[in-house]
Design goal:
22% strand; 274 residues; alpha/beta; eight-stranded mixed β-sheet
């Protein structure tokens, strides 16, 4: 069939875990944009939702850190974190193992990726799904791009990964939706937690909305570390979605810096062209 939806959103744990501490005038437009994206995903009638995320040493650590990994499990449980801390009750999501396998096999013609038949979702996936699919009625295919432990995959490779994913999706009979989740600038678990570089974020979003491949893939890790913190390495998930929507432009639904959430909260969509 085809890729029927492509978008990106933030996933910081404070979005749900510290909801009551945020300014409602900032929080509510962001929540509304997340719900809007969820309604659009459901309207696209996907057979599965691919979630490209950057996890946080929940399933992968320095003894086994693939650059790219796709889930191929029957089901996924989450959150791996304390539900009370995250503000999300434990849930189980159906997987799509047969579809995952076909996607992996197709993508391996163009890129290398690992697979996992066991995977517990952390906040990087649970927070978006809390808003986007509250009923949990669409099978999930998780993808992790290592954004934690160097050496990190170059941004140019993340774009190529997205292109390979789009090619594989378009070759399947199923309808597939895609979201990427991540920062943008943030300094989690550091004394600078709560700092947000709004100017850097907006410049990155301008590049993403224009789907400017050269500009998106021109970031160095040194620049990103300096301007966007270690959390900024998660731009790879957004870049992968841009690669999957190559030739298309985007629309920004919401960008609002919310310090208590420790991130510039983002929701944006690519306007796909078949």
């Amino acid at each position: 069939m085809a890729l029927v939806y492509a978008g990106v959103c933030s996933h910081a744990p404070g979005i749900t875990g510290r909801a009551e501490r945020a300014d409602p005038e900032l929080r509510e437009p962001f929540y509304a944009a997340m719900h809007r994206m969820g309604a659009e995903i459901r309207a696209a009638r996907p057979d599965a939702l691919v979630v490209v995320a950057a996890e946080h040493f929940a399933n992968f650590f320095m003894d086994n850190m693939p650059a790219y990994c796709m889930g191929m499990a029957d089901h996924y449980d989450g959150p791996i974190e304390d539900p009370d801390w995250l503000g999300i009750a434990p849930r189980r999501f159906a997987g799509a193992p047969a579809l995952s396998r076909r996607l992996i096999e197709a993508m391996m013609a163009d890129v290398d990726l690992a697979y996992a038949e066991e995977w517990q979702f952390d906040h990087g996936i649970m927070v978006p799904l809390h808003f986007l699919l509250p009923e949990g009625d669409v099978p999930i295919i998780p993808v992790n791009i290592n954004s934690q432990g160097p050496p990190l995959t170059p941004p140019a490779r993340a774009y190529v990964f997205g292109r390979a994913l789009r090619k594989a999706c378009d070759a399947t009979p199923e309808r597939i939706a895609l979201i990427g989740t991540g920062g943008i600038s943030h300094w989690p678990a550091t004394p600078d937690s709560g700092k947000i570089n709004e100017a850097w974020d907006r410049e990155f979003l301008d590049r993403w909305l224009a789907n400017d491949r050269a500009a998106l893939t021109g970031y160095t890790d040194e620049e990103t570390w300096r301007e966007a913190g270690q959390g900024g390495f998660e731009i790879r998930t957004f870049i992968a979605v841009a690669g999957a929507a190559e030739g298309c432009a985007g629309e920004l639904y919401c960008y609002v810096p919310i310090p208590i959430f420790a991130v510039g909260c983002t929701v944006a969509r690519m306007s796909l062209v078949s």
